[in-house]
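Minutes, project check-in
Item: structure for the 81-residue chain
Input as provided by the requester:
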Amino acid sequence: MSNWIIAAIFYTFIIGWSFGFIYRFRSTITGTIAMILPMVCGMIFGFGSRTIIGIAFSSNLSLSLLTSVLIGILAGGIITL
């Protein structure tokens, strides 16, 4: 199994667990934590997607950087809904 597939499985597990945890305990989350959690999830998702996209498209790293930043912003926005 190649390294990027292992990284994809790992980050998918971490992101799925994080989103599930947040949605499960959504009613008990205070205001400060509700602000910090989307930022953390966005950073985790952006870092994971940067690792996978950076390996897959190593010829154009600036495009993979911008793509992963947008994915992280989108993930942070989705978790606030």
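Outcome recorded: The CA atoms of residues 54 and 76 lie 20 Å apart.
No further action items on this chain.
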